[in-house]
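Response to reviewer comment R2.3. The reviewers asked that we include at least one raw input/output pair. We reproduce the pair for 2A78: carboxylate/amino acid/amine transporter here without editing.
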Amino acid sequence: MSTIAAATPPRKEALDTFAVSLLILCCAFWGFQQILIKVAGREMPPMWQASLRMWGATALLWLWCRWRGVPLAQRDGSLRAGLLVGALFAAEFVCIYLGLQHTSASRLTVFLYTSPFWVALLLPRFAPAERLRPVQWVGLSLAFGAVAVAFGEAFGHGSVPGQWKGDVLGLAAGLFWGLTTVAIRSTRVATVSAEKSLFYQLGVTAAVTPLLSLARGEVWALDYSGLAWGAVLLQTAVGAFASYLAWMWMLRHYPATRMATFTFLTPLFALVFGVLLLGEPLTAQLLLALLGVATGIVLVNRR
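Raw output as returned:
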């Protein structure tokens, strides 16, 4: 991957109020998203569900670009890098959907959100300005440790048969997410619009997932309950379209390593939704984790 420096748009050195607010909204939905996948997964095969989501999101993005006049087909030298980014994005979501067949949403989410470590470890090799200082590494470690504390109770119980498969797939998804972020920031994809960057990702995934679905022998159907369709619709319109478009735009304008730290809020939001929607108890561990994540974010975003 070639490093692009001079051609990238002007970037801000720190996260402003708008970026922080948008990041929190995205993280809140991403915490809810795992629950949606599990709900729809009671009726839909995993790769077929992913296909429906990515087809819908790709169509929405194409309509958005037509309305906004954003070119997607012009030659700008980003095709090879875009296909790489799309392949990494597809690998992440294949791991997520398959992993949720073997483990709980909470366990997979904590492994998925090891992604910021890969970003912090690899991105400075391509973008030296993204290098973290020691105090920021402390903040990153504190935030991740706080997430681990929040899930400590689940780790204390006996594992179910095959759960390790979901855990491994969750770790792999976190690695692929981190690599996607690094690829976006360090290749020509960094010079294209947020819409085109996301189109590479959604388009490749929309092409890959149905092939995997057929290879797995999944049955394609449309006669699902309103709850299942509602879960897929939210994943499509808000998750795969609106929130990821916002994320792609922010990656081009704000420091990726500082943005990545906010993603630690997502598994905590997942726990909060569990309390509100599933009646799970609000434990001292969760409150301690919330404090730890907040402290970690402050440390990483110190100027």
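The mean pLDDT is 83. The chain has one domain: 17-300. Further pairs are available on request from the corresponding author.
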